[in-house]
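ugh ok fine here u go
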Amino acid sequence: MRPTPSERARVVGLLAVGLDGDDGHKRITRTPDFVLLGGSAETHERMQETAIRFEEALERRGKTLAETEVSEVIDLLHEAREAVIG
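structure:
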């Protein structure tokens, strides 16, 4: 039996953790869809830019995170990351 749309897996939030922060700063950024924790200033900035690009892509599609299929979330994250790191 196939799951109904309400029973399908969905993403309701994303967590990004930067592990290279060794300067004593505690970096935390929250957006409607993300919580970004830690990292060096450079890493945290890249995480922020990725989150912004991801949320802009969702907005262009007229969707919320919870409305977006898991596979599409993964694809959008990859696209946003690639746009940031080049």
